[in-house]
């Protein structure tokens, strides 16, 4: 309306739904680098009158690394969350490396992605799902055995 155009609020909502994933994909690699100390927590929030678990991981400087909305709060949801966080970190690191070395992202994805990018320490609350999820990821080789769970 500032520019003399009448745009319906549903049009703006559709633009957001269409373009935000692309903006997120392009901007995330350029955000500040993170460190290897993660803090993980979950909480319940109400979305459309339904209680949903919000998982979130931040580094020790408070930078949000990843989040996940899940209908359940169990070991499978925690494992899904950690996989999403590790894959997100691997994608942003491979994108940064490809820009630095002039390689394509697809050629960098053939190298084992997460072992160099895994956190050194993961701080969690007393949710019993986290130790099981971390143990499963270590057994699958997605996390290094040296990752400390506090």
From TrEMBL:
<protein>
    <recommendedName>
        <fullName>DDE domain-containing protein</fullName>
    </recommendedName>
</protein>
<dbReference type="InterPro" id="IPR032874">
    <property type="entry name" value="DDE_dom"/>
</dbReference>
<dbReference type="Pfam" id="PF13610">
    <property type="entry name" value="DDE_Tnp_IS240"/>
</dbReference>
<feature type="domain" description="DDE">
    <location>
        <begin position="36"/>
        <end position="89"/>
    </location>
</feature>
<dbReference type="InterPro" id="IPR052183">
    <property type="entry name" value="IS_Transposase"/>
</dbReference>
């Amino acid at each position: 309306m500032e520019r003399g155009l009448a745009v319906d609020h549903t049009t703006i909502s559709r633009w957001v739904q269409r373009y935000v994933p692309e903006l997120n994909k392009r901007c995330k690699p350029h955000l500040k680098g993170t460190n290897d100390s993660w803090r993980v927590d979950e909480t319940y929030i109400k979305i459309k009158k339904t209680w949903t678990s919000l998982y979130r991981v931040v580094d020790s400087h408070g930078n949000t690394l990843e989040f996940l909305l899940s209908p359940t709060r169990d070991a499978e949801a925690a494992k899904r969350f950690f996989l999403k966080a590790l894959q997100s970190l691997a994608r942003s690191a491979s994108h940064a490396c490809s820009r630095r070395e002039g390689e394509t992202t697809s050629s960098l994805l053939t190298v084992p992605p997460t072992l160099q990018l895994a956190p050194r320490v993961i701080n969690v609350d007393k949710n019993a799902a986290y130790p099981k999820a971390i143990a499963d990821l270590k057994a699958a080789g997605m996390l290094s055995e040296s990752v400390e769970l506090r």
